[in-house]
Structure formats: structure tokens, C-alpha cells
């Protein structure tokens, strides 16, 4: 059957989906609004990195790209906490050295995916933007961004990989109500950079995700292979200072950093230039009731479920979406059936990771200083040792396992309630009733399936 699937967007999910569908022998055309970044260089030369977790890596490995991706990745084995006062502290994510998240270069990862997709036969049309869609006639308006030339292209189905501002989603919404719900975060973000040390090399610990938690806001830094760190400040847009509105001038921004993140400021010689050049951007969670229009169009990745960044799972979730859609398209009778099954499978998981991403902001920016929180972590570790197949910390389920997000969320909620209850009013774990705790865990948490390495 000559199915004409048009993929909209050649970002992370579009490029990977093109690769998988082309390998299955589909004719694949991808339309990407932007220029081919392999020619011009990414983000104006800026190093933007992403945290790749087990579930995202598993999809890349299945596509045969594991070694190429990991070759230039930096392992992040824990949080390096930089408190307001006192020395930095390293909190490992796991006792198992294979359990780490990987900092990967967005541009390089996208190059790799595009090269592989083209090698598999996909045709990627850069400078081509989706405009209007005639869903009844199954024709899509594709606009050449260079000369505004417009073509109408016939399709069997449109696969929406066009990101948080999805044009396909807007077109679908004009045809049938998807019931979109946008939940903006009152905090925005700005990116900065720590350059390499004078003789090359890293100016702060290399194999860590750095966090400067400050209660109402935070600064983070992820390592790049070249010795640089991409730094992100998360802060309220407006209101009681500190907020972005009160830091419009670079002098105010520098004074704020000098008072709040003096150690980080000392590592950023280009602070003033970065602060003025890089925009302050917004964050939001997007939920849709419907992800597809029968067999004619489907949304995946950020287009379907943009999320907050605080669990580092947007790309990982998008890659899982791609793997699921590829499997369902191959296994179902037609695209209507595949898209419906895709939505049923993925929507509960997207909702769960969106909720967990929201929660993890609180956790990153202040919980680390709280003695009650630390006692719960201590108990969590002890219970995980006693029941390695049952009591697995939620962070581990999300980042180092492929447990469906919805199940991680559910088990995490149960575990957290137990931790809170068992440590309530306590200073330490002395005299805990381990027998009862063990019994409750055995009764309520079935063993998790063993995952392939
Ligand atoms: P995108 O990768 O955004 O791709 C969308 C593509 O569609 C783009 O190439 C765009 O040009 C194209 N497009 C848009 N409109 C049109 C149109 N009308 N016609 C044609 N093409 C169009 N996730 C993680 O898992 N870990 C992280 O650490 C992490 N860090 C992040 C850091 C930053 C600064 C940001 C912004 C995001 C981060 N994310 C991270 C989230 C992750 O980048 C996204 O979830 C992921 O890229 C989603 O993939 P996507 O394919 O849906 O969208
Ligand atoms: N999008 C990340 C984590 C969790 C780390 C932990 C958090 C920046 C935009 Cl904020 C953040 C994590 O709990 O210890 N893993 O990976 C990545 C994160 O931010 C990325 C760099 C980011 N994502 C818009 C900005």
C-alpha cells in the first residue's frame, strides 16, 4: 500500500520518526520550517544540551544509534548542590554506576538523526512550513519560506512533530475541538554559559547536574563535552523581586547574581553579553483531550503534550511516543486504528510525566535543604535496599527504568505517602517498625518486571 505519511517538523521526534518509518519501507517526506542546521551550524553556535535518560536512550539504541549518541555524551551521576551557604554537596542519583543521565548536545543529536533518516531513504524538505490544511480534501498547504511559494500536497495522514507551537495542532483545532488547555508557569528561564577553564577542562565537577537551589527559584548547569556548561536560571517573571522584570538591566542582574550565586557568577566572564543577548523565555504545560483526527492527523512530542522542563523528560517522552507510533502503525490495519491506540497508550503517560515535571521543580529548588525531606530520602534508600524489586524510588523509575510514566507516578505516590507517614514527627529512623513496613510493601507493591540491560 502506498501510504503517504507527511511528517511535519524535523526536530527530535520528527527526524527519529522519519528514520523508523523509512526503515519500514514507507515513503517518507518531512517538512521542516527551518534551514538545515547541518549546513549552517546550530543555535548560532550556542551549546544547548539535553538530559537523555534510560527510556530515551533505549529508543535510540533500538534504532541502532546508541554508540554514536553516547560517544560524545557526558554522564551525570548525581546532583551537585550549591547551597546559599556552606560547601557544595554531591548527591548521587544511584548506587549503581550504570544508572546515570546523559548530557547530549541537541544539535549533534539532531544531525545524527537527520543523517540516519536520509540514509534510510526519508526525504527532508528544509525551509518548508506547514500552513493551512484541508482535512476533507486531505491536502496540506506547504510554504517555501525562501520565496513564499505555496504548494498543496496530498496526504494519507499528517504526523505532527512540529513542537510546542504546532501549526498542525492549530489546523486541527480549526477543524474539530481538541479541547486544548494551556497552563502557563509564572516562572520563565534564561540561558547562560560557563566556558571551559583556561587550559581546557571543566571549571566545576564534570559528571554532575549542578543545582543552586534558592527556595523560590534556582540556577542549574549541565556539562557539555567541550568543557562548557549550559546554565539556566529559572525565576518568576514578575512580582516580588527577585524576578525577571526587576532584572531587565544587566547591572541589576549582575548584582542579583553577586548576592545569590556568587560562585556561579565568578565562572561566567561573558555574563553581561549572555544576559542581554539571550531572551527570557516562557514555560507552560499543554494538555489536549484529543491527539488525533481519525486517521488523517496525529500529534506527538511537544505538539501533543508540552511539559515543564523540571524532570528533563520532554525529549525522552517524545522518543517513547515515536517508538509507540511506529510499532502501532506497523501492527494496525489502518492509521485511524493506529492513532486511536497511540492516544490510548500514550495520553495517560504524558499526563503523568507532566504532573511529575511540575512537582520536581519544588523538589529541585528547595526540598534539598529540608530535614524532613532528607529523613524521607534516607528511609527511601533503606527500603529500596530491603526491597530492590518492589520499592524503587520514583526518580529511578522515571530516569533509569522504562516503567510507564503512569505506573511510576502511581507507585511513587504510594511510596511517598508511606515515607511521610513513617517519618512523621521523627528526627531519625531509630525504632522504626520495619516488620510492618516490609509487610505493607509486600502487600501493596508487586515486583516490577526485570528490564533488559
Ligand atoms: P522539537 O524538537 O521542538 O521539534 C519541532 C520541529 O518542528 C522544529 O524543528 C521546528 O522548526 C519544526 N516546526 C515548527 N513549526 C513548523 C511548521 N509549521 N512547519 C514545519 N516545521 C515546523 N527534554 C529532555 O528530555 N531533557 C532535557 O534535558 C531537555 N532540555 C531542554 C532544554 C531546553 C532549552 C528546551 C527548550 C527543551 C528541553 N527539553 C528537554 C525538551 C525537548 O527539547 C523537547 O521535549 C523535544 O525537543 C520535543 O521534540 P519535538 O520533536 O516534539 O519538538
Ligand atoms: N527545558 C533536567 C532533570 C532532573 C534533575 C534532578 C531538570 C532547560 C528548558 Cl530543569 C531540568 C532536569 O531532579 O536532579 N534532569 O534533566 C533538565 C532540566 O532542564 C533542562 C536543561 C531545560 N529544559 C526550557 C530549559
Could you name the ranges where pLDDT drops below 50 across 5 or more consecutive residues?
none
> Count of helical segments?
16
In the CATH scheme, what's the topology name of the domain at 4-45 and 106-181 and 288-359? Answer: FAD/NAD(P)-binding domain
Write the CATH architecture name of the domain at 4-45 and 106-181 and 288-359: 3-Layer(bba) Sandwich
Shape: globular
| Radius of gyration using CA atoms only | 23 Å
- The overall pLDDT average reads 96
Strand order of the largest sheet: 6-5-14-15-16-13-17
How large a portion of the residues is in β-strands, by DSSP E? Answer: 15-25%
**Strand count:** 19
Q: What structural class should be given to the helix and strand makeup?
A: alpha/beta
What is the CATH C level class of the domain at 4-45 and 106-181 and 288-359, in words? Alpha Beta
CATH superfamily of the domain at 4-45 and 106-181 and 288-359: FAD/NAD(P)-binding domain
Helix residue percentage: 25-40%
Distance N terminus to C terminus? Answer: 37 Å
In this entry the ligands are: flavin-adenine dinucleotide, ligand 8RB
Q: What profile does the largest beta sheet have?
A: 7 strands, mixed
Amino acid at each position: 500500500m502506498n501510504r503517504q505519511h507527511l511528517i511535519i517538523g524535523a526536530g527530535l521526534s520528527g527526524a527519529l520518526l522519519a528514520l523508523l518509518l523509512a526503515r519500514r519501507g514507507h515513503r517518507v517526506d518531512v517538512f521542516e520550517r527551518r534551514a538545515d542546521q547541518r549546513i549552517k551550524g546550530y543555535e548560532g553556535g550556542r551549546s544547548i544540551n539535553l538530559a537523555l535518560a534510560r527510556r530515551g536512550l533505549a529508543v535510540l539504541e533500538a534504532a541502532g544509534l546508541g554508540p554514536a549518541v553516547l560517544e560524545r555524551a557526558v554522564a551525570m551521576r548525581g546532583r551537585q548542590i550549591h547551597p546559599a551557604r556552606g560547601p557544595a554537596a554531591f548527591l548521587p542519583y544511584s548506587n549503581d554506576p550504570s544508572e546515570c543521565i546523559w548530557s547530549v548536545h541537541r544539535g549533534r543529536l539532531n544531525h545524527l538523526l537527520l543523517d540516519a533518516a536520509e540514509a534510510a531513504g526519508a526525504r527532508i524538505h528544509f525551509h518548508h512550513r506547514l500552513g493551512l490544511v484541508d482535512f476533507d480534501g486531505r491536502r496540506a498547504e506547504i510554504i517555501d519560506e525562501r520565496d513564499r511559494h505555496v504548494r498543496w500536497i496530498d496526504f494519507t495522514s499528517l504526523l505532527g512533530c512540529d513542537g510546542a507551537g504546532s501549526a498542525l495542532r492549530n489546523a486541527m483545532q480549526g477543524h474539530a475541538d481538541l479541547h486544548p488547555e494551556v497552563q502557563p508557569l509564572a516562572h520563565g528561564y534564561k540561558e547562560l554559559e560557563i566556558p571551559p577553564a583556561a587550559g581546557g577542562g571543566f571549571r566545576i565537577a564534570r559528571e554532575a547536574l549542578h543545582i543552586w537551589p534558592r527556595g523560590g527559584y534556582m540556577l542549574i548547569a549541565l556539562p557539555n563535552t567541550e568543557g562548557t556548561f549550559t546554565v539556566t536560571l529559572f525565576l518568576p517573571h514578575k512580582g516580588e523581586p527577585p524576578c525577571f522584570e526587576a532584572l531587565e538591566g544587566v547591572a541589576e542582574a549582575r548584582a542579583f547574581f553577586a548576592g545569590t550565586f556568587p560562585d556561579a557568577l565568578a565562572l561566567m566572564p561573558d555574563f553581561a553579553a549572555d544576559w542581554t543577548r539571550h531572551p527570557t523565555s516562557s514555560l507552560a504545560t499543554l494538555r489536549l483531550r484529543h491527539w488525533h483526527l481519525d486517521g488523517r492527523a496525529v500529534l506527538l512530542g511537544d505538539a501533543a503534550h508540552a511539559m515543564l522542563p523540571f524532570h528533563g523528560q520532554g525529549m525522552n517522552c517524545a522518543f517513547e511516543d515515536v517508538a509507540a507510533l511506529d510499532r502501532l502503525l506497523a501492527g494496525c490495519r489502518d492509521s485511524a486504528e493506529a492513532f486511536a491506540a497511540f492516544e490510548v497508550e500514550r495520553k495517560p503517560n504524558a499526563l503523568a510525566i507532566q504532573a511529575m515535571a511540575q512537582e520536581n521543580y519544588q523538589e529541585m529548588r528547595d526540598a534539598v535543604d529540608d530535614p524532613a525531606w532528607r529523613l524521607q530520602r534516607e528511609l527511601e534508600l533503606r527500603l529500596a535496599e530491603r526491597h530492590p524489586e518492589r520499592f524503587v524510588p520514583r526518580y529511578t523509575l522515571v530516569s533509569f527504568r522504562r516503567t510507564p510514566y503512569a505506573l511510576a507516578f502511581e507507585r511513587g505516590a504510594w511510596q511517598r505517602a508511606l515515607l511521610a507517614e513513617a517519618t512523621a514527627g521523627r528526627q531519625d529512623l531509630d525504632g522504626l517498625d520495619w516488620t510492618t513496613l516490609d509487610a505493607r510493601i509486600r502487600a501493596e507493591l508487586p515486583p516490577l518486571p526485570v528490564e533488559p540491560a
